[in-house]
Amino acid sequence: MANAARLKRAFVACTLGLAAGATPAAEPTVELPAAVQVQPLAVRDQNPLLRPFYVPSARLAPDEGISYSAALAWSNTTNLPHTAVEQLYVDAETAEIDLRATWRRGAWLAAAELPMLWRGGGILDGVIDDWHAFLGVNRGDRPYVQSNSYRITYTTLGAAPFSAQRGPALGDIPVEAGRILFSAPGTQLSVWAGAKLPTGSRAHATSNGALDAAAWLSAGHAFGSRFAMFAQAGVMRPGGSGEFAHVSREMGFGTLGVTWKGTDAISAIAQADVHSALPASTLNFLQPAVVGTFGARFRLAPFLALDVGLQEDLATNHSPDATLYFELRHAAGRY
C-alpha cells in the first residue's frame, strides 16, 4: 500500500509540474551541447504479454521544430513457464515498426507514434541458438520447441484462456505532451504526460482494449564534449487488465544510460530500461524486468542519423531473449 501511495504522489507531482510550466522561471534560455542532444535509444520491453500496455520509451527534449523517425524492433523469444495455477507458452517472433514525430516550440513539447506489429514463427531461432552456443550460455526452453514455430497462450485461474493470433496488426497509439522545466549548459530536465489510445488488436496481443495514462521526468547531463548521461523515471496507470484477471493499479518504469561520442560521425550508447511487475503473477516472464541495450548512432548527414542496437534480458527469462533494433532519425537540428 505504501508503494502504491508513493506512485500516486509521483504521478500527481509530474502532472502538476506540466501544468505549472507556464511560469517564467521554467522557460529555458540555453541550448544543450551536442553530447546531450544525442537522444536515448527509443526501445521498450518487447514482452508480447506486456506490449499491450503503455510504457513510454525514453527521450530528451528535441531541437526546436519537428523531428521524425522510423524504427524497427525485431524480437524473438521462447519461454514456457508454468505453476499449479498458471501456464504460459511463448514461442514467437515479433517485428514492430514505429513511426514517430516529436515537436518542440520553446519549452513546450509533444510527441506521437504509430506502431505496427507482425507476429509469427520468424527466422531468428537458428541465429539465436548459434549466438548462445558461441557465448556458452544455456539454451533455456529452446530445445523443447520446433525451430521457427509460433504459439502464444496464457492460462490462469480466474480468467479465460488467451491465445494471440499471428499476423499483422496495428498497435495502440500513444500521444504525449511535455515541457522543459530546466535548461542550463550541459543539463536538461523535462516533464511529460501521455495517454495510449486503444487502437490496437487484443486478438493479436497489441492492445489491452483500454486507455492507459502515464507521467514521467526525463533528464540529461553532459560531462565534457564526449560523455553524457540520461535518465527517465515515471509511473503508468493502466485503464484495463487486458487478458489478465488482475493487474497492479500502477507500474513504475525508468531508464538509465550513457553516451560516448567517438567521432563527429559515430556515438556509442548503452542503456538499461526497467519496469515493475504489472499482472498478479508468480511467473518470471511477468515479473519486473531489466532490459539492456547496447548500440551505436551513425551520423549520415547533418540532420540524419541511423541507430543500431541489440537488446538482451539482463533479468533472465523476464523479457524476450533478444531484440534487434534499428531507427532512422531526421532531427530538426544538427546531430
In short:
The protein has 335 residues and is mostly beta strands. It has helices at 2-19, 34-37, 125-135, and strands at 65-79, 86-105, 108-120, 151-156, 162-163, 167-170, 173-184, 187-197, 212-223, 227-237, 251-261, 266-275, 289-301, 304-313, 322-330. β13 and β14 form a beta hairpin.
**Name of the CATH class:** Mainly Beta
What Rg, in angstroms, do the CA atoms define? 20 Å
- Please write the string of helix (H) and strand (E) elements: HHEEEHEEEEEEEEEEEE
How many distinct domains? 1
Oligomeric organization of the protein chains: single chain
Beta percentage is: over 45%
Q: On the 0-100 scale, what is the average pLDDT?
A: 86
What does this molecule look like?
The structure is a single chain. The protein is mainly beta. It has a single domain, classed as Porin. 10% of the residues lie in helices and 47% in strands. The chain has helices at residues 2-19, 34-37, 125-135; strands at 65-79, 86-105, 108-120, 151-156, 162-163, 167-170, 173-184, 187-197, 212-223, 227-237, 251-261, 266-275, 289-301, 304-313, 322-330. It has a 12-stranded antiparallel barrel. Strand 14 and strand 15 form a beta hairpin. The radius of gyration is 20 Å and the shape is globular. Residues 1-8 and 10-31 have low confidence and may be disordered.
